[in-house]
Fold this sequence. Notes:
CATH architecture of the largest domain: 6 Propeller
Number of domains: 2
Low-confidence stretches: 1-6
Oligomer: single chain
Distance between the termini: 18 Å
Amino acid sequence: xxxxPAGPGYVFYYQDASGVHRLxxxxxxxxxxxxxxxxxxASAVSPDHSKLAIGYSGADSSRLVVVxxxxxxxxxxxxxxxxxxxxxxxxxxxxxxxxxxFTERRVGRETLPGAGAVVMASVDGRLTWVGCEESKIxxxxxxxxxxxxxxxxALYPVDVQGCRGDAAMRLRGKxxxxxxxxxxxxxxxxxxxxxxxxxxVAATELHVARYDGAxxxxxxxDPYDPQHARWSPDGSRIAFDVRPPGGRALRHIAVLDVAxxxxxxxxxxxxEGTPRDTHPFWAPAAATVVHDRMLGGQTTKILRTLALDPxxxxxxxxxxxxGNPPGTxxxxxxxxxxxxxxxxxxxLLSTEGAxxxxxxxxxxxxxxxxxxx
Length: 373
């Protein structure tokens, strides 16, 4: 059920097959902001979570709008032809958007950007062209006047005035390329090779580099099979899950301290046995993660404080969800409430393990925020 009248209310922005909706969980009011013509929608929440930028394809054109999260007021920032798609990144101060809009073309087996451009959009509707020629995709805003753009084959950090830059990072062979929240670094997975007896097999490796691709370092590879890597909120750590050598059916949580370049492992042991821990997702509190746990055929989603500081008081994990499917963590509505989604449901959960609000699934979450009276 929704939060009580005296507490904070929550507003959900989501996409389904018909369009983009705003749901006020306190009142139950559900309004469709606009309909969509195709399912691909780009969205980006401003750093202070007060604004939500949405790029979508409508009946006659593609459009970029910014939504006031508290009120639902919509302002159009840009429009293009119906076949264009958007990529978005907010400036560090939340006053501007880097916008890549482009059509798509097939080149052999690749899908690359065709027509389009990269522009700067201010929240009051002013547009300025960055001046990139081949690059039409925006990946991240990494410094005061530096964005990362790309042409589908490589990433280029460039100045927002004139698209000037002299660095590049090739994308071939890399997947799950993710920039840190502070914009200083990038992580990615690559598929390497490892020898197993007389065989050569594929092996996943986790790499970290500067945002421009320089100083790339292999963090971990075979036999640990690192997966599901996530930056901490401040960009100082990366959590991921690994396969311990000799325990092929098990997974443990591991954390890389980026500055110290040190990996720590957090294997678990319970009275029922050793669980399989996967899919870590950082909480706003620096040493706390949510992750999936499988043990004895039962799957749970737990909130767990990692012993990053051995002197800190450690608490028992809190079970947030039990059953199958456990869903995936979409993100946090505030310091003490997170959103988990599956095909069957969307749930707002408190860090104490209570379900505060739920609704049917098959929705793509775009934004969730607490709205205080």
